[in-house]
Amino acid sequence: MQSFRSWISPSVSSWDLTGIGLSALCLAHCLAAPLMIGAFPVVSFLAADDSLHLVLAFALLLIAGWAFYRGFKVHGKGKIPLLGGLGVLLLFLSLIVPGASHHVHSAHGTGLLALDLNAELGLSVLGSSILIWAHLSNRKHCRHSCCCPATAG
After folding, report:
1. How many domains does one find in the chain?
2. On the chain, which terminus has fewer CB atoms closer than 10 Å, C or N?
3. What's the sign of the alpha-carbon dihedral 22, 25, 27, 30?
């Protein structure tokens, strides 16, 4: 059985792979959920519960934070953690947007265009994509760093 210390200190690469996997899962969920709800309306009750989204968002925040912190210590490129932070921020914003009922009045009168679902989907897809890109960059720069002992995994 692994000790807690050995679990908390895998290579930067392992943390990035975990972050890429979770971000890709989030991306797939964001793209598939509207199709599934449209095809099978009976599963729409699953979309009403945001607790899963919050748990995944906090898991992404912790994993990304740890991976980018450790990567920055190795390669020193500040743009990568900033890019990752932007991705996490967009994902958290996507959790807020649906509750904020944004409507745009049409130029032709009384028609309303609901932007909630499109904004949530757009922010989620963009945030997940940016996180994946940031993790890939972090991994690449750690591997190319001259003194990166923590990228064996």
Report:
1. 1
2. N
3. negative
Sign of the CA dihedral running 70, 71, 77, 83: negative
C-beta neighbour count of 144 within 10 angstroms: 10
Q: Are 93 and 123 in contact (CB under 8 A)?
A: yes
Q: In angstroms, what is the C-alpha Rg of the chain?
A: 19
Question: pLDDT tens digits for 6-27?
Answer: 444 457 788 899 999 999 988 8
* pTM metric for this prediction: 0.73
pLDDT in tens, 76-93: 999 999 999 999 999 999
Contacts of 134 by beta carbon, 8 Å cutoff, 6+ apart: 64, 68, 80, 81, 83, 84, 87
Name the 3-class secondary structure at 49: coil
Dihedral class, residue 107 (left if φ above 0, else alpha if ψ from -120 to 50, else beta): alpha
The single residue listed with the structure tokens 């095809």 is: 39
Residue 63, domain extent: 10-98+112-144
Tokens of 152: 């064996």
Look at residue 1 and tell me if it is in a domain. Answer: no
